[in-house]
Design goal:
mainly alpha, two-stranded antiparallel ribbon, globular
Length: about 90
C-alpha cells in the first residue's frame, strides 16, 4: 500500500522518527542521560537539540519521495556520528 508513492511502513517510520526528534526539544532533560552515555559530556543540552534536529530531519525526509537521497545520507551518517562519539567517550 502506498500513499503518494511512499509505503505505509515508511510513513509510520517517518512519523515516529519525527516525533522522537521533536521530543528532544519538548523534553530535553529526558534525553540528557542518553546523550551523556553516547559521549556528549560537554554541552549536553546543545547535543540533545542537535540530535533532535537530525532525527526530525531524518523523519521528515522519510515522508517525501523527493528527499530519498538526503534520507539515505542521514541514515548512513547519523549512526556513524553517534558511534564515533560513543567510542571517543570510552577513551
Amino acid at each position: 500500500m502506498t500513499t503518494s508513492g511512499i509505503s505505509l511502513p515508511r510513513v509510520i517510520a517517518g512519523v515516529v522518527t519525527t516525533a522522537c526528534g521533536l521530543a528532544h526539544f519538548a523534553w530535553p532533560v529526558k534525553f540528557e542521560p542518553v546523550n551523556r552515555q553516547l559521549g556528549f559530556t560537554r554541552n549536553t543540552r546543545t547535543h540533545v537539540y542537535v540530535n533532535g534536529g537530525i532525527e526530525t530531519a531524518l523523519g521528515l525526509t522519510m515522508l517525501s519521495g523527493r528527499t530519498r537521497t538526503i534520507n539515505i545520507a542521514l541514515l548512513v551518517t547519523y549512526p556513524i556520528y553517534l558511534i564515533q562519539n560513543a567510542l571517543r567517550a570510552r577513551r
